[in-house]
Amino acid sequence: MATSRLSIVFIATIFVLATSSSAKDYIVGDENGWKLDFDYETWANDKVFYVGDTLVFNYAAGAHNVAKVNGTGFQQCSTSASNGIMTSGRDVVPLQTPGRKWYICGVGKHCELRNMKLVITVLPQTWALAPSPIATSTSGKLAVPTIYGFVVGLFASLLLLLV
């Protein structure tokens, strides 16, 4: 009975660690947020986005918005092909599928003239043990690859079983 209970605890621990340590929240623009005249291409350049991560757009509500568009909408700074316009000032966007993702500000000429646009590529979540590149954001904070949290949790759980 004790062995089966311990096995259930072990499996539950692995599941919790795997799901909780695999996703990252990216604050778009770091401490600058979503604003005029910021280079979002450079900001995104050193980051690796995976399915399960989230983007957080921080801005003054009413001054800007966030529209998810397709590639044409991105190039033309047009929200006509938008999948919805977010206006809360703290918009959280879960990255649920792999592929290219395009976001623009649809207020006035913010996209066309003031560079308020972001394009990223979202990769599928993998459980391979090969380390992903470690990148630092412009805020200087270290972005730790997600697989390391899983591996540490796995070893910690194995140690608990042996004790």
Describe the fold and architecture:
With 163 residues, the protein is an alpha+beta fold. 32% of the residues lie in helices and 23% in strands. The chain has a five-stranded mixed sheet with strand order 2-8-7-4-5. Helix 1 (2-20) runs antiparallel to helix 5 (147-162). Residues 128-146 have low confidence and may be disordered.
Keywords:
163 residues, alpha+beta, five-stranded mixed β-sheet, three-stranded mixed β-sheet, globular
Number of helices: 5
Q: What class, by secondary structure content?
A: alpha+beta
Q: How do the helices and strands follow one another from N- to C-terminus?
A: HEHEEEHEEEHEEEH
The end-to-end span amounts to: 17 Å
Runs with pLDDT <50, length 5+?
Answer: 128-146
Tally the beta strands: 10
Give the helices and strands, then pairings.
Elements: H1 2-20, E1 25-27, H2 40-45, E2 49-50, E3 54-58, E4 66-69, H3 71-76, E5 85-86, E6 90-94, E7 99-104, H4 110-114, E8 117-123, E9 135-136, E10 142-143, H5 147-162
Parallel strand pairs: 1-3, 2-8
Antiparallel strand pairs: 3-6, 4-5, 4-7, 7-8, 9-10
Short synopsis of the structure:
The chain has 163 residues and is of the alpha+beta class. Helix content is 32%, strand content 23%.
